[in-house]
Amino acid sequence: MYVQYDIWSVVAFRRTRSLNAPSPIQQFGPCGRIMKNSAMVMQIQDPASQRLTWYKPPLTVLVIKKVHDASILSSFVQLVHWLVHDKSMVVFVEAAVLDDTLLAEYGDFASIRERLMTFRAGTDDLTDKIDFIICLGGDGTLLHASSLFQQSVPPVMAFHLGSLGFLTPFEFNNFQEQVMNVLEGHAALTLRSRLQCVVLRKTTSDGKERKKPTTILVLNEVVVDRGPSPYLSNIDLFLDGKHITSVQGDGLIVSTPTGSTAYAVAAGASMIHPSVPAIMVTPICPHSLSFRPIVVPAGVELKIALSPEARNAMWVSFDGRNRQALQHGDRYTTQHTPGWQTWYSALTIPC
User: Fold this and answer.
1) Hey, is 216 helix, strand or coil?
2) CB under 8 Å, gap of 24 or more: what pairs does 241-247 form?
3) Which of 326, 319, 351, 334 is nearest to 142 (CA)?
4) Is 16 part of a structural domain of the chain?
5) I need a surface site. Which of 23, 139, 242, 292 has the fewest CB within 10 A?
6) Which domain holds residue 184?
């Protein structure tokens, strides 16, 4: 009696381990083989192996808090005072934060107010000025921090001081110890990706755009809905130029794995681990029972446009911002930003 090992079992046993599944085999039978193409390979690293390292000591930190939120002022003053006096760091804050008159109640804040660097969102460019970011608030504060950077985003420490905390893993009660761990390079990283969205307006009779294309990066999701219209929306969805389906309902959500825990999960989608290279497409109250949330690879290009038979315009918003109407002939495309693991690094301290 003997045991015959199936060839697929042997190959599977020898595959290298990855985060989500065994790596695909490269050969099929004696002659078939996958053509080598680096563009179609997407590396997925084990989050436990992703570590933060500084090639030089960090000197500048951006502190983000919700404007006019009195409940966070005490924590904000403690943190900024410690960073400036104890750690001798250059601290950037939004000018609108310092306009809060309630800060005058904190007498020790006056001594560091003049030492803070200020900027105005949408006006000043922070590219290559910030070593890392500290957020005080909820997930909305983190989304605001993402919107300040249209290229790569510095590492982010997010302290949970808001209503929602999917993306804010730190507690503020021992902030000195946790920030020191980051400054000393004892931190793990969770790398997340953003969607690059381009709004293309209908061309005129001479072939020119009515408006220049608008490019927006989002961390959570793009939401397309019917707006104030009483009619159902009719939206055409294209995948890499091929028509996939027409969505009739209240709208459509295109989300990143990070955004799968936000509006998408409330609309019935599944949660996706942030290290999975994918895009989630979720209908909002679809009129058709056959259309359910779908997951597509991160490298594809999605295009969304009004169906020819649509009776009303559609409205689109990006991470809850920049809401605008799209008419017949307008469209928007979305794809992952170039290169996997691009936008920000949510820092988590290993036990």
Assistant:
1) strand
2) 241/301, 241/303, 245/291, 246/307, 247/283, 247/286, 247/291
3) 319
4) yes
5) 242
6) 60-193+343-348
Distance of CA 126 to the CA centre of its chain: 18
Q: pTM (2 decimals)?
A: 0.79
- If one compares 164 and 155, the residue with the highest pLDDT of the two is 155
- Confidence class for position 76, pLDDT limits 50, 70, 90: very high
- Two tokens, residue 125: 């460019």
- Whether the pLDDT of residue 61 is over 90: the answer is yes
Quick check: helix, strand or coil at residue 103? helix
Q: How high is the pLDDT of residue 60?
A: 95
Our count of domains for the chain comes to: 3
Q: Distance of CA 349 to CAs 48, 80, 95, 341, Å?
A: 11, 21, 31, 19
Contact 61, 83 (CB under 8 A): yes
pLDDT mean across residues, the chain: 79
**β 60-65/90-94 pair status:** parallel
Tell me: do 143 and 201 sit in the same domain. no
Residues in the chain: 351
DSSP collapsed to 3 states, 229-286: CCCCEEEEEEECCEEEEEEEECEEEEECCHHHHCHHHHCCCCCCCCCCCEEEEEEECC
Average pLDDT for 215-220 = 88
Asked whether residue 258 is domain-assigned, the answer is yes
Count of beta carbons in the 10 Å neighbourhood of residue 209: 11
Helix ranges (H only) for 114-262 are 139-147, 175-183
Active site residues: 139
The mean per-residue pLDDT over the stretch 53-75 comes to: 89
128 and 149 Cβ atoms separated by less than 8 Å: no
Nearest-5° Cα angle at 214, 212 to 220: 170
Under 8 Å between Cβ of 120 and 96: yes
Q: How far apart are CA 144 and CA 9, in angstroms?
A: 49
Contact (CB, 8 A) for 293 and 268: yes
Query: Hey, is 177 helix, strand or coil?
Result: helix
Cα Rg, the chain, nearest whole Å: 24
Residue 1 within a domain: no
